[in-house]
Amino acid sequence: MSSDITVARVIAKLPSRFQADAAENLNAIFQFLLEDDDNFYITINEQSCTTTQGEHHDPSITLLMDAETFINVVTGQQDGMSAFMKGQLRAEGNVILATKLGKLFKDKSQDHTSA
């Protein structure tokens, strides 16, 4: 894994990895509260995706973890369910939505090309 992967870079790339067809009939706010980094949320609405820094006033689901766990799950180094079972990730709200996250974003971990 490259040491230059940061939460900010991951957040910036999420909209380009979004799979609109997987979000049909889904309107949800995924709040991420990171213990040691900036909080942000993802808005999925009408098959579009936006990311926003900060905290949403009424998220559909809130995911709590540290930055390392977030990066490991997003890059595929750790399974989200594994992180949950180990107590590294907590979910509040509509926890069923957490299971949909993997299908909403393309896995680019297989793409090791460099510019």
Which labels suit this protein?
115 residues; alpha+beta; Nonspecific Lipid-transfer Protein, Chain A; 5-stranded mixed beta sheet; 5 strands; disordered C terminus; SCP2_sterol-bd_dom_sf; SCP2_sterol-bd_dom; SCP-2 sterol transfer family protein
Reported by name, the CATH topology is: Nonspecific Lipid-transfer Protein, Chain A
The profile of the biggest β sheet is: 5 strands, mixed
**CATH homologous superfamily annotation:** SCP2 sterol-binding domain
Annotation field: number of helices: 4
Summed up, the domain count is 1
> What is the CATH domain class?
Alpha Beta
CATH architecture, by name, is: 2-Layer Sandwich
Strand-residue proportion: 25-35%
Termini separation (Å)?
16 Å
Shape: globular
Order of helices and strands: HEEEEHHEH
* Helix content, binned percent: 25-40%
* Gyration radius over CA: 13 Å
Structural class of the helix and strand makeup? alpha+beta
Low-confidence stretches: 109-115
Write down how many β-strands occur, each being a DSSP E stretch of 2 or more residues: 5
